[in-house]
Structure formats: structure tokens, C-alpha cells
Amino acid sequence: MSTGGRLFWYAHRLRAMSAAEIMHRMAERARRFTLGGCLKRAARIQPGPVNARAPFLPDPAAAPQGLREALAVEAAALQAGKWKLFGWHEAEVGAPPCWHRDARCGVVIEPKTAAHRLDHRNLPDGADARTIWEINRWAEMTRLAMHGWLNADKAAIRAAQLWLEDWLDHNPTGMGINWTSPLEAALRLLNFCWFDALARAAGADTAVQDKLARRIVPIHAGWVWRHRSHGSSANNHLLGELAALVVALKRWPGMEKHVLPVEQVWDMLGAEVLAQFAEDGGSREQALHYHLFAFDLAWQAARAVGCRAGEVHDRLAEAADYFRCLAHPDEPWDFGDNDDARVVPVARSRERAVAEWRAWLGGEPGDLRFWLGRSPSSPARVEEAGWRCFPESGMAVGRMGGWMARLDASPLGFGSLAAHGHCDVLHLSVWDGAHALLIDPGTGGYHGFAGLRAELAAWEAHNGPLPAGGYRTPRRVGAFLQTAHHPQPLLAAEGGRVVARFAHEGRIMQRTVVMNADGIEIQDVEAAGRPLVVRWRLAPGMAAKMLANQGRACLELSLKGVLWVMDPGADEANVRLAEKRASPFYAEIASSVEVEVRCAGGSLTTRLRRG
Question: Between the N and C ends of the chain, which has fewer C-beta atoms within 10 Å?
């Protein structure tokens, strides 16, 4: 980014802050001068005895069929330095890995630069901070410990201990890319809580584990508390930071006098749960993957403190129900940002993690039930046929005859940044059974993928009606900074249909979706009768062919030998097919067909049925 671009970003970032946040950040800068003394004091702290019930480990005899074998295969690959990043990218990272290397592009970030002097938003040579952080969250060490505990493999646990020691040796506190975000420290701390519990339960060398705890727990807990997110940055990051502290303070009660009593941290976390999840259960981030990420973090803390009732528990139950209702298990294509993050590696298959989470939320047995116990959701509410609306969150989902449709009528995102929201009002995603047909195109990546990120988050990348000239706002001025937020649309279910109405920039657009066992009908109207354009992004691998239909457009869609027919409601001359990009996983790019339909009369009806 050029100097001018950085100044532009900083100016808009400052405008997104309150006066209190600006004062807090100034005080935070001043506290850098006292950091050295704090680190010296933290190095002398003894975490003290552990509470063996935080996190609570299940009975090994109850392990689901195949879990031991799956862990053994994964552990062998990890110890050979073969890691699978984001659930899809197989990378040779080493054993132990190079902790400062972007495994995608090979760039190594200087580890001896103070974290506050590193601009992780603008790393050199296309490096991406999120990709580097992927191997630094210690989930793989936790996975090795799970294997070591269930399969009585102390050598695997010892290998993970050596990796942790290597990480500490190569990442001095406050130095390098891995200390630029307090959330990253929180995720390491939370995984170490699990690692410590598993290693001790497996009979690992107590002296070695005690030494690791002394080197890790006080520094990480102190760092997370001292640098916790504030103000406009206090989204899922703050929730994650507080969740890690709750679990760590429950495991090492002696740390409370150095941080805060765990009950107070839990109260702070509870306030964030109520602020970040709407009453209908939806995450105000307006990103379905971050919804699950935040829920997982909060549920880890809730289990640690034994929260089984009350307002926070009920809100988490609504959040669980919301996710299960809106997520598709086989081909998710989530709305909003998705960086394929995980908290603790409890799912057996990262590629199928959404399906595993939905199964757990539905009360089914499996790996998540084994590791996390029973879920707080109400399974019976999700599978009802017809439409279900979440008016506060601005989402509607319909199921009928094997079809699933998800309509977006949501605000842009959470707070003044709307960091993880996309320009996707009136977007419609459609599935038929296990197949995604009309998709949200994904995220692509963050700082190292700026162009792709802007492209996939834009109005034009989504399946919604737009004015012929498009919209000018919101404006994205950084990876996680948007200005001129749009208003929230109206959403209502009326009989067997759902209607969303959006007033923006002097235009009123209305989308009505009707679903039955035969297919789906979508009616788009521009209230003043002015021209509009509708784009439909097809799932990667799906082919589209124009059929002869006496001048009227008719498309045959095909995927894996299955056929569908789309009637876009326009003449052939007004329908255009183009090749575009989509992103099924973080940093993965796939080709996708776009169907663009232009309408001069302000009203367009699209029909989709099986072929």
C-alpha cells in the first residue's frame, strides 16, 4: 500500500473510533514503555496447581468409532511436517515448522522486529498474516495430544512439547508477527489449556509440562488481558480473548490474582455474547463462519464455568439453533467473511467441519459430542418445511422438497467497522439436496489477497437485484473497514413466500421468493420501474448452456450428471454468461459461471426447477 493509501486508511480508521477509544489507544501506546517490566514480572509468576476439570476431558472408552485411527493417521502426517492448512492446502511446513513463514508463498517475516512496529496489514511480497497465523495457533499440537492421550503415544506428545519449546524460543514475547494480535495469543492459550489437560492425563512428564506452563500461561494470559481488543475492534476478537482467559483462569486458579477473578471475566464475556449475538440468535458480524467461531469460543468458556442456564446460556442456545438452521452441511458457501478458522480441533475432518457441527447441534453422537458434551440447541425447530425468518439478523431460510434457499436482508455488519460483512443485501443462495446451485462467492483472503477480497465482497459478486449502474456505497477502504453503511432492509414471511425490501441511494428494490417441491420462483421489482440487473453466481463445476426457446432465454444447468433448468425471465439478448472467480476455502480460488440478466422494465421473474 502506498503512503497516500495508508494515510487514507488511517484517516477513515480514526473516524470509526469514539473519543474514548482514541484516548484508550493513546494510553496503550504510552504503556509500551512499561512493557519490559511487566514481562519480567510475568516471567516470575508460577501458574500454580491445575484444576483437572477445566477443560473437562471425556471418558476415553467412549471415543467414537474410527476416532483413534483417524488421529493416528493425522499425527503421523503432522510429525512428518505435512500439514493441511485451512482444511484444503497441503503444505510441507517442517517439524517443527518455520513459525514466521507464509506457507503459501514462502515469504519469511523478520522475527526480530517488535510486534508494534510490524504492519501486519501490509507484509512484503504478497505475504498474508492470516496464513502465517494458521500454523501458530497450536491446534496441531492439541491434535497430537488428543492422539497421544487416546492411543497411548507419549512420543507424539513429547514431539508436540518440543514444538512448543521451539515456538517459545523463536517467538520472544512482543517480537514478530505472532504477537501483533491479542486474539492470536488467546487462541494459543486456549489450545494450550487443552494440550496441558491431555498431556497430563496421558501421563506425560510432569516436570516438562510444568515448565511449559510456567513459560506459556502467565505471559499469554497477561498479554491477552493487557492488549485485549477495545472500542471499534471489540468484535469476535474480544469475545475470543475473554473466552481464553476464562478457560485458563479456571484451569489455573492461582492466576486470578495476577489477572482478574474468573467470575468477573465471565461477566465481561457474557456481556459480549449478548451484544454480539442478536436475540434471534444471529451474529451481528453478518458472517456465518464467524458466527460459529464466536459461538465455539463462548461455549468453551461456558463449559469451563459450568453455565447451564440463564440469559447468556439461552442466547448461546439461540445462536446454536441459528447456525444449524442457516448452514448447509455439504457445500456451505457461507455469507460474509470466512477464513476457515477453528478454535480447538474437535472436528474429525476440517473439510466436513460444518456437517459435524450441525450434527452435534442436532443432538447426534460423534466426535463433537465426545469432546464437548451435549449441545445447547433445540434440534426439532430446524427441519420444519417452509420459511423461517430471523428478522433482527435479517436472514430467512426455506426448505421444501429437498430444496434449500437462504435470503439475505441484513445490515452490513457489527459496529462502525462492519469488518466481516459483505455487500450482499437481497442475495439468494440455493441448494438442491447435497448440491449448491446459486452461491455466495466466498472471501478469497485478507491482507495478502486485497484485490480478490474486494471483488468477492462487492455488490456485483452477489445474487441480488441492483440498479443498472450499481450502488456507490458502502465503500471498502481497508480489509476490515467499511464506510457509509447501508440501512437495514425489511424482511417478512407471507404465507408460502418471503419478501425483502431495500431502500438505498434513492432506489427501492423488492425481492419475493416462493418455494415449492417443484422449484423456486424469484420476483425482483424496482419500485419506480427503472432498469435493473440481476446476477446469478453458479457453483464451481456447474456448466450453463443456452437452450433454443424462440428468442426467450432458457438455461440448462448441469453438475455431476444432474440437470436443472433456469428461466431468467428475459430475452436471450439480455442474458450474458461470464467466467468469474469464487473461493470455497480461504486462499483457494475456483472458476465459476456468472449469469447476468438485464431488464429495462424494472420487473424480472426468475424460475429454477429440476431438469
Answer: C
Q: For 175-282, where are the alpha helices, taking DSSP H only?
A: 182-201, 206-226, 236-251, 262-276
Identity of the residue numbered 39: L
Closest CA to 436 of 401, 396, 397, 405: 405
Quick one: angle between helices 262-276 and 236-251, nearest 10?
150
Number of C-alpha atoms within 13 angstroms, CB side, residue 588? Answer: 21
Helix-strand-coil split of the chain, %, nearest 5:
40, 20, 35
Please, where in the chain does CATH 2.70.98.70 lie? 386-610
3-state secondary structure of 20: helix
Label residue 411 left, alpha or beta by phi (over 0 means left) and psi (-120 to 50 means alpha). beta
Q: Which CATH architecture has domain 386-610?
A: Distorted Sandwich (2.70)
CA angle (71 as vertex; 589, 244 as ends), nearest 5: 75
pLDDT in tens, 77-132: 999 999 999 999 999 999 999 999 999 999 999 999 999 999 999 999 999 999 99
Average pLDDT (313-327) is: 97
Query: Whose grid coordinates read 447435497?
Result: 434
Q: Residue 104 in contact with residue 94, Cβ under 8 Å?
A: no
Residue closest to 296 by CA, chosen among 359, 344, 248, 353: 344
**149 with 131: CB under 8 angstroms?**
no
C-alpha cell at 578: 461470464
Averaged over 387-407, what is the pLDDT? 97
What's the maximum distance between 2 C-alpha atoms anywhere in the chain?
82
pLDDT at 278: 99
Check whether 382 has a pLDDT greater than 90: no
Distance CA 281, CA 323 (A): 8
Q: How far is CA 286 from CA 326, 393, 419, in A?
A: 12, 8, 9
Residue 541 in contact with residue 533, Cβ under 8 Å? no
- The pLDDT confidence band at residue 323, using thresholds 50, 70 and 90, is very high
Q: Which parts of 306-444 fold into alpha helices (H)?
A: 311-326, 353-361, 367-372
- The C-alpha cell 501506546 sits at 29
pLDDT, residue 3, reads: 72
- Rounded to whole angstroms, how far apart are CA atoms 234 and 372? 26
What DSSP assignment string belongs to 440-490?
A: --B---SGGGHHHHHHHHSGGGSSSEEETT----SEEEETTEEESPPPPPE
Report the alpha-carbon distance of residue 557 to residue 610 in Å, rounded.
9
Residue 87 burial (CB < 10 Å; 0-12/13-18/19+)?
middle
Average predicted confidence (pLDDT) for the chain: 96
Distance CA 357, CA 301 (A): 17
Q: Letter for the amino acid at 29?
A: R
Helix axes 311-326, 288-305, angle to 10 degrees: 150
Percent of the chain at pLDDT exceeding 90: 92
What band does 392 get if pLDDT is binned at 50, 70 and 90? Answer: very high
